[in-house]
């Protein structure tokens, strides 16, 4: 049984179940022969015919052999990893990992080498090679985690071998860069040069609500309850993976990202003014972009312009999120309990909040230690 979907660009996709390589799989086709170098399906009729052709072709192709632990090559294991990832990750994550595998892993390891013959010394040399090339610490760690995940996939094929685990992880020898954010005074100075109601509402939203930029730009008026002063976060904007400068709406980053947030009155007033300023405003309109969401690059360009005109220090769009956390920490009565509130508001775990922002809680350790002074030891 196949299901069809008309895509944003007017072409069609078809999803179905198919038996390949000895097991049943989910399949999605958007191009003839399932090959992205071939034309897309421009009508539902074409998608139907493409589906039938693919089924017929699959019946004629002999099943791939079941690999034994001794015979599977590293290249074959990578392919198995990517096949599994395609159905268990967001499309953007899949293509990001695919690019990393091509540029960082397959460019170093011989894809024809049997998996169990890859030595720990090769893993160590690979890590040293990444360091010599000057990759950032976090990027190197993510590449190592990706390589380890590839070897872990081997367990699905009775290959219990992971040389990555035997090699020490990267060490962050350099000093961690200082977190950049606007203080309250700096933000108000930045805001003072903004007279466009949309831009004032947008950057106030980022500073006060602390959402990720994709979450903010995906908001539609139907997601905001102006009467009850709340909004719902349940989607985000991501760059399309086809290489074009296009964007699409997807599920948010993690399960914790699904949340309902209260809106303070000062921001609510700006949002109400913004909505009133839009002729023929529809609930389907994007809050900061009307019929289409505001592109990331446009947002960055606007921010750069206001940074220059206000004489503000340079911070990234994501740093408005850090600025929001800093404000909440500095204005909270109990900083430790604030961690839970901040985590819920930002859609993160408490562990992640403390790991990222723990240095902004300078007094809490001393306060907790001082509690022991109340003990009468003598």
Largest sheet: 3 strands, antiparallel
Q: Assign a percent range to the helix content.
A: 40-55%
Counting DSSP E segments of at least 2 residues, the number of strands comes to 8
What's the CATH architecture of the largest domain? Orthogonal Bundle
CATH topology of the largest domain, by name, is hpI Integrase, Chain A
What structural category do the secondary elements indicate? mainly alpha
**Rg calculated over all Cα atoms:** 26 Å
Terminal CA distance reads 79 Å
Highest-level CATH class of the largest domain:
Mainly Alpha
Roughly what is the average pLDDT, rounded to an integer?
Answer: 83
Major β-sheet strand ordering: 1-2-3
Poorly predicted residue ranges:
none
Amount of beta strand: 5-15%
Tell me the series of helices and strands, N- to C-terminal. Answer: EEEHHHHHHHHEEEEEHHHHHH
Q: Which features would summarize this protein structure in a list?
A:
single chain; 378 residues; mainly alpha; DNA polymerase, domain 1; hpI Integrase, Chain A; 3-stranded antiparallel beta sheet; 14 helices
Protein topology:
Blueprint: E1 3-6, E2 12-20, E3 23-29, H1 44-60, H2 74-86, H3 91-105, H4 120-132, H5 137-153, H6 184-191, H7 197-209, H8 213-218, E4 224-225, E5 230-233, E6 236-239, E7 247-250, E8 259-262, H9 265-276, H10 296-310, H11 319-331, H12 335-346, H13 350-357, H14 364-370
Antiparallel strand pairs: 1-2, 2-3, 4-5, 5-8, 6-7
